[in-house]
Model the fold of this input.
Amino acid sequence: MGSYLSSVAIPSNLPRPSFEQLFRKELGLKEAEYNLVLSRFVVRHFQKRTFLLNAGDVSTGKFYVNSGCTRSFVLDRKGKEHVLFFGFEDWWLADFESYMTGKPGKQFIQAIEDLELLYISKPDFHALTVQVPALHEWFEVRQKKMTFAMVDRLIEVKTMCPEERIEKLARARPAIFQRVALHDIASYLDIEPGSLSRIRKRMLGEHRIS
Amino acid sequence: MGSYLSSVAIPSNLPRPSFEQLFRKELGLKEAEYNLVLSRFVVRHFQKRTFLLNAGDVSTGKFYVNSGCTRSFVLDRKGKEHVLFFGFEDWWLADFESYMTGKPGKQFIQAIEDLELLYISKPDFHALTVQVPALHEWFEVRQKKMTFAMVDRLIEVKTMCPEERIEKLARARPAIFQRVALHDIASYLDIEPGSLSRIRKRMLGEHRIS
Done:
């Protein structure tokens, strides 16, 4: 785990819109359950460029993204970075295979904006899913959705041309070109940065005309 | 769902080594539980080249592969096929997103060898997971492994050169080049069939010499 600026119990006056929205509204937790859940999480702030996780680390807990943005990447044999995912608000961060198996992971996770995260350890999370069954059920559904999202990413990489991949990403994440560096988006999409820039300019030009 | 040659309750004399191995040994089901599980499955035989599932179909159940081999593929905008997975013995088959959501799927599943499958409908499977908790727990773990396998496929497609991808597949599935057509393996690996053939010949030559 990288360094972090603060690690404190959550004060009641902290703005945590995503987290509260998720647990109170989506999961419909009652006051006592919500307070129990909240009590197991710890707020952590990471500065832009900090590494939350390095390849070879074991993920002993996971982070909920309350605000900010991250990139998860792996290295190939030659040491070149390949971006797998971006993490935005309401996303969970870990190398989830490492989290499940307890073995060292393959992924790096780096802050590309200042982050406000809520951290929970694996044993604490497990205890919560026993105490709050709605949380367990919700995570099972989420797990399945994550599998489908991965299959979709695979289909995208295999079947879509650069234009289609850019269009799909821009539709799913309209603000991504304002928040993330072009070379990271290019790596995520498997497109050369020069081509991404050129194609995007052409696409924006077409939209302005039409 | 495509056509199938037979659909009957499982006779007790049927050879079903993989299925029995999985449920009796791996899951450790007792006699009564195993018989309950078995009673909900139906044997189906599909001839080589038959389609089990077409894009647009809803997966209302899933198949366990007792013997044989399948390919799952999607079409791009131009109608070109892209192989996502192969299904071998001990594999489960469905478009799992369609299975979960009840919406039409994207994947085609085709027999590339004669198949002996065990089919179970979604409501029957759900009922079984309630009656046999070990089955539920086992499927949760399996779901997570499936997610990690998908992340691995994504990493492979993004970071590995053709030689590394071929080597990885040959190590994981030594018999695949005997069972599956070269153009399907090429599509799965995202390598041109001509290049796959050339690289593989060179790799086999090197192994013979060393």
